[in-house]
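We close this part of the discussion by returning to an individual protein. In the encoding step, the backbone of a single protein was reduced to a row of integers, each denoting a local shape. The sequence in question and its structure tokens are set out directly beneath this paragraph.
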Amino acid sequence: MAAIQVQDLRKTFKVQKNREGLKGAFADLFKREYTEVTAVKDISFTIPEGEICGYIGENGAGKSTTIKMLTGILVPTSGVLSVGGYVPYEEREKFVRNIGVVFGQRSQLWWDIGVIESFQLLRKVYRVSEADYKKRLDELVERLALQELLNRPVRKLSLGQRMRCELVAALLHNPSILFLDEPTIGLDIVVKSEIRDFLKDMNREHGTTILLTTHDLQDIEALCSRVIMLDDGRIIYDGGLEELKQRWGTGREVLFQFGSATKLGQLNHWTDGMPVTWSAENDLNAKAWIPLDLNVSDVLGRVVGQADITDIKIIETNTDDIVRSIYQSGSAEKPEEARAEQDGKEVVHV
């Protein structure tokens, strides 16, 4: 069953045009001029129950606007959407009981009161029974190690501590769908890792559907099997992360460190017949460039046992570089695929 269904979703804003100079400012007092800006342009996607999906794009691509429509904060200009079986902006009261939301740059906790008091207020907002609240709170507090933070005012928490509390606040009513908008922004690597582990456990144990927007692609790699990529309000890619790497990745590097001198000619001889490109700084350090369609183990099998190897390092496809290349081109099609399509050749798309 689908947790989120979106069909031809569009959002257009009217933006005031400010005329220049004192005369223009005076004219704006009496007659304002507007221009239309379309932030989301007829997008469609379906997210099944229990999936963790990454929703990524550059600043201004339309990510946050989409999230706000999916959570009922904004009303779409056109299109159809269903979240947990509800239309968010029409069935607000019933709908919010099924979702949790964490905005990395906004708080749903009360700034000057203790964390536990914020949780108690949210229990009443979501109409959670005392027994269910206590059971859920105990589970979340233990999992995120918040015992010492419960009586502190929110304003005295570090950013990492606050974000852990924000997650508890969003999950107190046990929602089936969780929206995360930049949940790890500004956090150190230790806290990021803790939050990622927690989200994976929540998904595995409770089947929570998670839609995650982030600029940190390590969040995507750690959590998501599927990626929806947005550019200028349009979806340019919807598919698996590994498929994206296969489509755009150019290969892998394997760095070898030898205990004794090993000539470049020997390395080329051992991998003769394989599409491997060797380069070397000196006789003790060499680099093999291996295309994606060749198994690294096959190359290692040719070299290990022949040479005195002291260290091997495999450098996989860099997701940041891949995504950057896609944004620069404005399409998730590789350049040669786009040319082939224009030439009338058959191209298989993800």
Remarks:
- Residues 335-350 have pLDDT under 50 and may be disordered.
- The chain has two domains: 2-10+44-245, 251-315.
- The longest helix spans residues 189-206.
- Residues 2-10+44-245 form a domain with the Rossmann fold fold (CATH 3.40.50.300).
